[in-house]
Amino acid sequence: MTAVNIPRLRVKPKKVKPLAKCAVEMSSLAACWATTSVDDRRCAESAKRLVTCIQKAKTPRAEKSDVNFHLARLGRQVLGK
């Protein structure tokens, strides 16, 4: 019996680029540091906003798709594996 090379059925998920979280707060803090020194008290408000933004920011969990599982099951039935 010879082995037949049967292609596997697969779906590639879309690649989603993550959004830059807290970028505005980070740039305002960097701008404040550029105009003054790093230890200046005038940048404290920008630093507090950045810290609260980072604490609130959550990374969304990507939901796992089960389409490849079902394609593999159907492939076995259709192709006779």
Kindly summarize this structure in a few lines.
With 81 residues, the chain is mainly alpha-helical.
Description:
By secondary structure, the protein is mainly α. The chain has a domain at 20-57. Helices cover 48% and strands 0% of the residues. It has helices at 23-35, 44-56, 67-79. The chain is rod-shaped, with a radius of gyration of 25 Å. 2% of the residues are buried. The mean pLDDT is 80.
Number of discrete helical segments: 3
Summarize the helix and strand pattern as letters.
HHH
Number of strands: 0
Give me the Rg, rounded: 25 Å
Distance between the termini: 14 Å
Helical amount among residues, as a percent range?
A: 40-55%
Indicate the low-confidence ranges by residue numbers.
none
Oligomeric form of this entry? single chain
Supply the helix-strand structural class.
mainly alpha
Mean pLDDT across the residues is 80
* Gross morphology: rod-shaped
Outline the biggest β-sheet.
none
